[in-house]
Design a protein that fits this description.
The strands form 4 sheets. Strands 3-2-1-9-10 form a 5-stranded parallel beta sheet. Strands 4-5-8 form a 3-stranded antiparallel beta sheet. By secondary structure, it is α/β, with parallel strands linked by helices. Helix 2 (about 80-95) packs across helix 11 and helix 7 crosses helix 8 (about 270-280). The chain starts with 5 loop residues before the first helix and ends in a 6-residue tail after the last strand. About 35% of the residues lie in helices and about 15% in strands. A hairpin with a 3-residue loop joins strand 6 and strand 7 (about 225-230). It has 11 helices and 12 strands. The protein has helices at about 5-15, 80-95, 115-125, 140-150, 165-170, 190-200, 245-255, 270-280, 310-315, 320-330, 340-355, and strands spanning about 65-70, 100-105, 135, 155-160, 205-210, 215-220, 225-230, 235, 260-265, 285-290, 295, 360. The protein binds glutamic acid (GLU). Glutamic acid (GLU) binds next to loops.
Length: about 375
């Protein structure tokens, strides 16, 4: 496909009609504590122990639900694992009669031209979307509004710690690995004033963290069952003033009406924090499906350095787009697929729900 402006491409993707829905720097987490796939209790029926019970008036949330999504960070070209996750997210949404939306998560790092190439790749493999992709940086006001709503209820506190402070304090035995040890949670106003002043003298500002009312939360995952994980006082606005991924993703999922989150297994560990935050913001907690990651034969996560792993690389070896989809399809037990809908049709909802949770080990093709 010829290069087009991002805006044109966005509109082109949005113009296409939804597929017929009638056919049927994060750390990977360890094994989920429980695995009772498909036996999750619907959110509304679950009871919560230990949370504040408060709900925001969610003026910044959208009204629509019944929506799945794909939310890539525009940091480079998709590799085979990203393409497989996109197909699965799309298949899950379409197979369950949902809308499917995109979000370009550009609040962190962005590589020039990457978002456009990602959209082109999705279009090429037959993943379409409803409406225009949401550009996350355009949502700064909504992110601030959510922070203000949490702050008004005493659910936010300033954190003055450096990474090193956290690393040192977090080695205490009662703190789960990688979790915030609570250093700045209960400081007096005069301590805060002093710490704010010493940061300001260094030209720095505090980060904001969520005073998460509940130290753990349970989410419903189509592949991993009812999954309970710890929730620490995670960062919601970084020290540089940029909203943190967890905050922005939750606020934007709510705005886009997302009630089904299908994404890589590396984010399962974030789901309890995100679901608790959604709850605090008065937004619906989505159902999740954390699908297996693609790994290189070394066992490391698949990456560009592993060889021909992007659509462009593989085309350079003479593969057609259909050949790439067929390669992905065969990893899912679907032979002969040429576009995303072939995979969705062949799997159906029962095939999606019974996907293996084992990583996909990819030997990058050499011809
Ligand atoms: N933007 C994140 C990524 O590309 C995914 C976020 C999400 O799916 O919640 O890894």
């Amino acid at each position: 496909m010829h290069r087009r402006g991002l805006r044109n491409l966005i509109q082109a993707g949005a113009r296409r009609r939804p597929h017929d829905a009638s056919h049927g720097d994060r750390q990977p987490v360890g094994h989920p504590k429980t695995r009772h796939a498909h036996h999750c209790t619907p959110t509304a029926a679950r009871t919560r122990a230990g949370h504040s019970g408060e709900r925001a008036t969610a003026s910044y949330t959208g009204r629509m639900t019944n929506t799945g999504r794909f939310a890539p960070s525009p940091t480079g070209d998709f590799h085979l694992g990203n393409l497989r996750t996109a197909i699965l997210a799309w298949a899950w949404a379409r197979t369950t009669g949902r809308r499917f939306v995109l979000r370009i998560e550009d609040i962190d790092r962005e590589r020039a031209g990457s978002a456009q190439r990602q959209l082109e790749d999705l279009e090429a493999i037959g993943v379409d979307w409803d409406g225009e992709p949401l550009i996350q940086t355009a949502r700064a006001d909504a992110h601030e509004e959510a922070l203000a709503s949490l702050a008004a209820r005493g659910l936010i506190f300033e954190c003055y710690c450096t990474r090193r402070d956290i690393r040192e304090a977090a080695s205490a035995p009662h703190v789960p690995p990688g979790h915030y040890p609570g250093t700045c949670l209960a400081l007096s106003e005069s301590e805060r004033d002093a710490k704010r002043a010493s940061l300001a003298a260094l030209g720095r500002a505090p980060a904001l963290r969520l005073a998460a009312p509940s130290p753990e939360w349970t989410v419903c995952d189509e592949l991993h069952g009812s999954y309970t994980g710890p929730v620490d006082h995670f960062v919601v606005r970084r020290a540089d003033g940029v909203p943190a991924y967890n905050l922005a993703a939750v606020v934007d999922d709510a705005y886009q009406g997302v009630d089904q989150v299908v994404r890589g297994f590396d984010l399962l560990s974030q789901a309890p924090a995100q679901a608790q935050l959604a709850h605090l913001l008065g937004a619906p907690e989505p159902t999740y499906a954390h699908v297996p990651l693609a790994l290189a034969p070394s066992g490391a996560r698949l990456a560009k350095r592993d060889g021909a792993v992007t659509l462009a690389d593989l085309r350079g070896l003479g593969w057609s787009t259909g050949d790439v989809v067929a390669f992905i399809g065969s990893s899912l037990g679907v032979p002969g697929a040429r576009c995303a809908s072939d995979i969705a049709d062949a799997l159906g909802i029962s095939g999606l729900r019974s996907l293996s949770t084992k990583p996909w080990v990819v030997t990058p093709p050499s011809a």
